[in-house]
Design goal:
heterodimer, A: alpha+beta, 13-stranded antiparallel beta sheet, 4 helices, 17% helix, 44% strand, B: 6-stranded mixed beta barrel, two-stranded antiparallel sheet, 16 helices
Chain lengths: 260, 422
C-alpha cells in the first residue's frame, strides 16, 4: 500500500517533466536541420567515404550513390545505397525498408538479410553504423528535445540542443547533443553519449556548399572517442532533395540489378 | 651389522617357494607397470606427433593477440621479415608454412543442372575457420595431404578449390565437386562472399579440423580478404621435438615481443595437453591398483615369515640382539626380496616394451573403427627412463613401508614368551 503511494507520487512528479520535455522551438530547429541534410521527404546523390584506421596501411576510400525516403509518422523509411568504387566492392548494395535490411553481393549474385541486431554494427568498417547510413531512427521522431544553450561564435549564433530518446525508440544512445546555427539551421556538431552518459563519438559538419539550390555542409567527420587515430569522413559530392524518387528503386529486383 | 644382513639374505632363501612366489609377484607387477606406462607414453607421443604433423606444427608465430582473438585485427604485416627470423636452412627445422586463418561462415550453394542456382535444397550454414595455405609448403611440413579420403589436395592451379573435413562435408551435405559459399569479414571489416568448389575431403582425426575448417590456396584467401601479402600465422615444423625450446626461443628473441607472439604446440593446442593429462590419470589409477595388490602380497609374506619364526626371534633377543637389530633383519629381508623382484621386473618390462618399440601392437582388425577417429591402428611403445625409476621407486617404497609392521612386531617380542611359543 505504502509502496504504491510512493510510486504514484513519483509518477505524478516526473510525468509532467516527460511530457513537457519536448521544447517546441528546439523541435522546429532540429526538424529544419534534419531537412537540410536529408531533405523534407527524400534525398538522393552520391558521396565519398574516407575511412582512417590506425592499424590500416592506408585509409580506405569508398564511393557510393544513395537514395532515401525519410520515415514519416505512418510510413516506414526506405533507403538504397550502391557502392561504385573501389572495384572490389562495386555493385554491392544495401536496401532498407523500415526495420529490414538486405545487402547484395554481385560476385556471388546473393542477397543476404542483415539481422536487426547488426544494425548498430559498423558499416563496412567505418565509424558509422548501419543505422547511421540507412537511418530508420529519426532525430525528430524518436527523441525529446530541449534547448541547452545559445551562444555567439565569430558572429554566428549557435544553439545547443539536447536530445533524449523516447522510451520505446529503437536507439541505443543515452543522449545526443546537437549544435546548430540558429540562423539557417545548418548543423556544426553532434555529440553522441552512451547510456552511462559517456561521450562516445563526435560528428562535425564543415564545407558549406550550395547543391541543387540549397546550402548544406558537405564534409561530415565522425571521430570515435575510444579509438584514437581512427575516424571517418563523408564528402557529399552531389545532393538533390525532394526530387521524387521512383518507388522501384527500393525493391529487391533493383538491389539485385546492382543499380544497372 | 653385516651379520644381520647375512642373516636376512639367508632367511630369504629358507622358504624358497614362498620367496620365489613373492619375487615373481613383484617382478610381474612391476614389469606390467613399466610396460603399460611405455605403451601409454608411446600412444600419447604418437597422438601429439599426429596433431603436430597434420596441421598445427611445433611452433606458430602470430601477431601479438591473435591467439586470444583470432581475427584479422592481428596480422603479421611484414611477412618476409618475420619468415626471415626462422632459420630454415637449419637441420633442426623441416620447414615452415605461411597461413591466413580467420573465422567465417560456409553454406552449400549447389549449381543447378542448366547452370544457375539450385535452391531446391535448404541451405545449411556452418561457422568455420577459413584457412589460406600454401600447397607446396603444407606438403613439406604437414601430412594433411595423406589424410584426404576423397578427391585431392589444394593446388595453386585450382584457385577456387577448397578442402574440408569429413564431418563438415556431412553436415553441409556436400561432396567432392560441389559448390560452397564462404562469407567472412575482410581486412577492411567489410563483409565478403565468394564461391569455392570442394576438391577434397579429409579425415584428420581431430575434432576441430574435421568439423570446422575449410582450407584453400593462400593467394586466393589473401585476395578474398584484401590482405595483400599479410599473414596471420607462420607455422614451423621441427625435425625433432627436443629442439622445441631452443628454436622457439631463438625466433622469439629475434622478434619484437610487443608485436609478435611465438607459441609452441602446447600453447596452440592446450586441449591436447589436457587430454594427455586426463588419459594419464586413468593409467595411474590402473597402476595404483596393481601396485597395491603387489604390496599386500609382500605384507602377507613378511607377516607369515615373522609369525613362523617367533622362537627364532626369541633366541636372537635372548642372545643379546637389540630389538632394533631384529627389526633391521626383517626389514632387510624384505628389501632383498623386493630388490630381486624389482631387478627382474625391470628387465622383463624393458624387454616387453623394447619389443613394442620395434614391432607395434597391431590393431588392424579394428582398423576401420580406429580410422574413424584418425588413429593409426599400429601402436608403438616408448621407453623413457623416468618410467623405470618411478615404477621401481614406488614398488620399493611401498614394500618397505609394508614391512614396517612385521619388523616392529618381531622387535617387540619378549624373549621369555617367544622362546616358549609353540
Amino acid at each position: 500500500m505504502k509502496r504504491s503511494v510512493v510510486i504514484a507520487v513519483c509518477v505524478l512528479l516526473f510525468l509532467p517533466a516527460l511530457i513537457s520535455g519536448d521544447d517546441q522551438s528546439a523541435v522546429e530547429l532540429v526538424k529544419r536541420m534534419d531537412s537540410i541534410i536529408r531533405g523534407t521527404n527524400s534525398s538522393e546523390g552520391s558521396m565519398t567515404m574516407i575511412i582512417k584506421k590506425k592499424r590500416w596501411r592506408k585509409p580506405r576510400t569508398i564511393k557510393m550513390k544513395f537514395w532515401e525516403v525519410k520515415r514519416a509518422e505512418n510510413e516506414p523509411g526506405k533507403s538504397f545505397i550502391l557502392i561504385t568504387d573501389p572495384v572490389s566492392e562495386a555493385g554491392k548494395g544495401f536496401l532498407k525498408i523500415g526495420n529490414e535490411m538486405w545487402s547484395y553481393f554481385p560476385n556471388v549474385n546473393t542477397t543476404t538479410k542483415i539481422p536487426p541486431s547488426m544494425m548498430l554494427q559498423n558499416w563496412m568498417g567505418s565509424d558509422f553504423t548501419n543505422d547511421d547510413l540507412v537511418r530508420e531512427s529519426s532525430i525528430v521522431l524518436d527523441y525529446t528535445h530541449r534547448t541547452l544553450d545559445t551562444e555567439t561564435q565569430n558572429g554566428v549564433k549557435l544553439t545547443t540542443i539536447e536530445l533524449i530518446p523516447k522510451p520505446d525508440a529503437p536507439v541505443t544512445w543515452g543522449k545526443i547533443v546537437i549544435t546548430v546555427r540558429e540562423e539557417d539551421a545548418i548543423p556544426t556538431r553532434q555529440e553522441y553519449y552512451n547510456e552511462k552518459g559517456k561521450l562516445v563519438r563526435v560528428m562535425t559538419f564543415e564545407d558549406i556548399k550550395v547543391m541543387s539550390g540549397q546550402k548544406l555542409p558537405t564534409k561530415w567527420t565522425m571521430i570515435p572517442k575510444d579509438k584514437p587515430g581512427d575516424g571517418t569522413v563523408i564528402i557529399v559530392n552531389d545532393m538533390k532533395f525532394d526530387a521524387g524518387i521512383d518507388p522501384q528503386t527500393f525493391t529487391m529486383a533493383n538491389l539485385r540489378k546492382g543499380g544497372l | 651389522m653385516s651379520a644381520f644382513l647375512k642373516l636376512a639374505w639367508r632367511n630369504v632363501w629358507r622358504n624358497t617357494r614362498r620367496s620365489v612366489l613373492t619375487i615373481i609377484a613383484v617382478a610381474f607387477g612391476l614389469a606390467l607397470c613399466i610396460y603399460t606406462y611405455a605403451i601409454a607414453v608411446g600412444y600419447h607421443n604418437q597422438m601429439i606427433r599426429d596433431a603436430i604433423g597434420v596441421f598445427a606444427g611445433h611452433i606458430q608465430v602470430h601477431a601479438r593477440g591473435w591467439d586470444d582473438n583470432q581475427t584479422l585485427e592481428y596480422l603479421i604485416e611484414e611477412p618476409d621479415k618475420t619468415i626471415a627470423t626462422v632459420p630454415v636452412g637449419d637441420k633442426r627445422i623441416v620447414g615452415l608454412a605461411p597461413r591466413v586463418v580467420t573465422p567465417g561462415l560456409v553454406s552449400r550453394k549447389l549449381v543447378a543442372k542448366g547452370g544457375g542456382e539450385d535452391t531446391s535444397k535448404e541451405e545449411n550454414t556452418q561457422f568455420i575457420m577459413i584457412v589460406g595455405a600454401d600447397p607446396a609448403a603444407e606438403l613439406k611440413i604437414t601430412i594433411l595431404a595423406d589424410k584426404i579420403r576423397r578427391g585431392k589436395f589444394i593446388s595453386n592451379d585450382d584457385p577456387t578449390g577448397i578442402i574440408i573435413g569429413e564431418d563438415l562435408a556431412e553436415s553441409l551435405g556436400v561432396d567432392v565437386g560441389d559448390r560452397v559459399l564462404l562469407w567472412t569479414q575482410d581486412y577492411y571489416e567489410s563483409l565478403q562472399a565468394q564461391f569455392f568448389f570442394v576438391r577434397g575431403i579429409y579425415r584428420a582425426g581431430a575434432f576441430d579440423l574435421d568439423g570446422g575448417y575449410a582450407i584453400a590456396p593462400l593467394a586466393t584467401i589473401q585476395r578474398f580478404l584484401n590482405l595483400d601479402d599479410m599473414l596471420t600465422t607462420v607455422t614451423v615444423r621441427l625435425s625433432d621435438p627436443q629442439h622445441l625450446e631452443d628454436v622457439s626461443g631463438e625466433i622469439d628473441s629475434a622478434l619484437n615481443p610487443k608485436v609478435y607472439e611465438v607459441l609452441t604446440w602446447e600453447e596452440v593446442m592446450p586441449e591436447l595437453r589436457q587430454y594427455v593429462v586426463f588419459d594419464d590419470i586413468g593409467a595411474y589409477v590402473f597402476l595404483a591398483i596393481l601396485i597395491i595388490v603387489v604390496a599386500f602380497g609382500i605384507l602377507n609374506t613378511q607377516l607369515m615369515a615373522v609369525f613362523e619364526r617367533i622362537k627364532e626371534f626369541g633366541t636372537m633377543l635372548a642372545l643379546g640382539a637389540r630389538p632394533s637389530q631384529v627389526a633391521f633383519t626383517v626389514f632387510a629381508e624384505c628389501f632383498f626380496m623386493t630388490g630381486v623382484g624389482v631387478l627382474i621386473g625391470n628387465v622383463l618390462g624393458f624387454i616387453a616394451a623394447y619389443i613394442n618399440t620395434k614391432v607395434p601392437i597391431n590393431l588392424s582388425s579394428e582398423a576401420d573403427l580406429l580410422a574413424v577417429f584418425g588413429i593409426d591402428p599400429k601402436m608403438y611403445a616408448a621407453i623413457t627412463w623416468p618410467n623405470f625409476v618411478i615404477c621401481s621407486g614406488i614398488i620399493m617404497g611401498l614394500a618397505l613401508l609394508m614391512s614396517l609392521w612385521p619388523a616392529m612386531k618381531a622387535a617387540r617380542f619378549r624373549p621369555v614368551e617367544a622362546l616358549r611359543y609353540v
